[in-house]
Amino acid sequence: MRLSEGVEWGIHCTISLAGLPEGATLPTKALAENYGLSETYLAKHLQALANAKILESVPGPKGGYRLARPAEQITLLDIVEAIEGRERVFRCTEIRQRVPVQLPDSLYRMPCEVHVAMLRADRAWREALRSQTVAEIIANYKQRVAAQLRQPGEQWIAERIRHAPEKKERS
C-alpha cells in the first residue's frame, strides 16, 4: 500500500497550523514555500482538509488556513481519510470462485480467508492512525528537538502569519 504524497503534505501543514496563535492564519503560498511544494497542488489538499472540517479556510487579504478544531481532536486517520478517502485499501473480488476446479457452493458462503486477513490488517492500521493525534506528534517533536533548533523555523512562520478575524463560536 502506498499513500499519496498529499497525505504527508497534509499532516505537516496541519502540524504547522496547530502552532499558530489564536485567530492567526497562514496562506497557502507560505505553507507551500515553507515545505518547497507546488502551491497549486497543495491548495487541493488543503481544501480537502477544509471540507473534512480539519482546517478552516479564511477568505480575504488576511485570510489563509487555520485549524478548525483543537490539535488534540485531529487524528492522523482524519487527515488520511480527508485526502485519500475512506475506502478500504483491499477489495476482495472473489477470484477464488474462478478456479478451474469448482468446489461446493457451501465453501463460498464462508468468508474468504484472504479477505478476512486483509480486513483485520486494515482495521489495525486505521486504529493505529486513529490513536495518534496531531497534538501528540507536536509534543513528541518538542521533546526530541531542542528549542533553539526549532526557533528558526518557528520564526520563519511567525513572519508570515496573518491575523484574520476571530473564529466564531458555533452554537
TrEMBL record:
It comes from the Bacteria. InterPro entries: Tscrpt_reg_Rrf2, WH-like_DNA-bd_sf, WH_DNA-bd_sf. It comes from Thermosporothrix hazakensis. This is BadM/Rrf2 family transcriptional regulator. The lineage of its organism: Bacteria, Bacillati, Chloroflexota, Ktedonobacteria, Ktedonobacterales. Gene3D superfamilies: Winged helix-like DNA-binding domain superfamily/Winged helix DNA-binding domain (1.10.10.10). PANTHER family: TRANSCRIPTIONAL REGULATOR-RELATED (PTHR33221:SF13), WINGED HELIX-TURN-HELIX TRANSCRIPTIONAL REGULATOR, RRF2 FAMILY (PTHR33221). One of its GO terms (cellular component) is cytosol. GO terms for molecular function: DNA-binding transcription factor activity.
